[in-house]
Amino acid sequence: MSATEAETQVVTAPKKAKKLKPARKQVKPGDVEKKEAPQTGKEYNIWYNKWAGGDREDSYSNKTKSQTRCNIKRDAGLTRANTTGVKYCCLFFARGCCPYGWECEYLHMLPDASTALPDTSKDCFARDKFADYRDDMGGVGSFQRQNRTLYIGRIKETGTGPETEEVVRRHFKEWGEIEKIRVLQYRSVAFVTYVSELNAQFAKESMACQSLDNDEILNVRWATEDPNPTSKVAEKRRLEEIGREAIQSRMDPRIVDAMRAMRALEDGVELGPEEEMPEEDEREAKRPRLIEDAHAEVSPSPPPLPETQQKSGILSADALEGMKYFAEIRRKNGLGSAAPPPPKTVVAPPPLPGGLGLGDYASDDED
């Protein structure tokens, strides 16, 4: 390498991870005007958060655009929850209207998919889930199904399907990694599937009553189950894989190795070098080998059975050798010196008097 090349070569140091700054206060107290739903009925339904007997909650005339919107790059930061260990996110931070900032008792950042929540019956905002979904698929959701897909309605389409998909992706990728997006063209509907359910929960609250590029008011709800059989099978395999990984992560690795070795013995497969036992197990395995060697010096093992005899019979060759080995030990310890009791002899009863014996009973052909 010449001197000029050495001068032009630039050594790039690894980038240091950015330290989070304290979370900012998204709004000031009193900036957000609280609007109550107009009374259109006589009874207020707390399940649907509306007056019973009035207009539908999903009616376009009853919807107003949200006054605030969260900006992750600008609003995310450290709060008291980072020191107290709280794993739940702030609901008002997701909606863009938390006035506490770094003094908030909940996290002001996206939920971490790799961190499990303390209670699986709650969402990422610490709200209790229910057994069933609401009729309009709104609300917190159900704990009986892992739902990662959002229904996005009332989209104003100004172009083709791919153009609408690009707009939806640009607005929804801010809340987490997206697995797939499906747009129903000319129906103003899209389905957004996230990799993690926690990100879907966060995005549902962040994009409720928000707009994309055309000043619309979005209707964000939970999506119903996909009727496609292929999607059902893929989702079932994914959940099984997650459950298998969770169980293996909590099990002792020595138990896993022992189960793998037992399964290999049952199947008659030899373990490879990468699947050998750890050192601790090897030490435990050497002890019975030493005992067997000591016994072998005292009493030689019987000769192995021929191959044809090993495969035939109910007991295997190993079982027969083990039985002979223990019989030899019992004989040497005096446990088997006593002679077995003699077999009982069966005496035939005498013939009945005046009756016909076997010799007297004959046919007429012998005369």
From TrEMBL:
Sequence ranges of Basic and acidic residues compositional bias: 28-37
ZnF C3H1-type: positions: 89-111
InterPro entries named in the record: Cwc2/Slt11, Cwc2_RRM, Nucleotide-bd_a/b_plait_sf, RBD_domain_sf, RRM_dom, Torus, Znf_CCCH, Znf_CCCH_sf
Basic residues composition-biased segments: 15-27
Keywords in alphabetical order: Cell cycle, Metal-binding, mRNA processing, mRNA splicing, Nucleus, RNA-binding, Spliceosome, Zinc, Zinc-finger
Pfam families from the UniProt entry: RRM_1, Torus
Start and end residues of each RRM domain: 148-225
Subcellular location: Nucleus
Protein origin, superkingdom: Eukaryota
Domain C3H1-type stretches: 89-111
One GO location term (cellular component): Prp19 complex
Coiled-coil regions, chain positions: none
PROSITE patterns: RRM, ZF_C3H1
The protein's name: Pre-mRNA-splicing factor CWC2
